[in-house]
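Minutes, project check-in
Item: structure for the 174-residue chain
Input as provided by the requester:
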Amino acid sequence: MTSATDPPSPATIAAFPPESIEAFLACCAGDWLSLRSRFSLAEAAADPGTEEPDWHSSERGELKIAYLAAEAGDGPGGLEISLPDGGRQRLLFSPDGGFRGHARDGSATEGRWQLWPDGSLEMTSRQPGVTVQERIWFTKANLRLRSSVEHLPDGRLGRASFSSEIRRVSRPAA
């Protein structure tokens, strides 16, 4: 089992944006303030003439992300994400480009990841009835952006979201 460890701080990561999956995961660790906009694209397409559409919402939240070190150096490790609603999710990454996730409610997901040359991480997972594609990238060590698009089996878009997340940093003691 992997355990939470203190990751290197983003300031100590040699290259930015991160050039390896391990460096990317380490850079994700921390406390984040998040502003997320969600869109239900299927609802918007079903009723395009409404004046006040119910297909969009925005919310603020906080995420706590811990880096999970790999056991015995057998992979890049993973992340444990504490969600604003009290839920937790673990994502464990394998060196072959696969990942698996486990939530507190017992649900599981599997998928593929790819770290692109621009330093962004793309993850694609298949769940019953949908495929979800998510991309996370850093514009600075303490600012990351995240987008997610859900594809329905018939090819239509389901839901989408965009988040901007700012790392909480504490001031040094005087």
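Outcome recorded: The helical segments are 21-28, 41-46.
No further action items on this chain.
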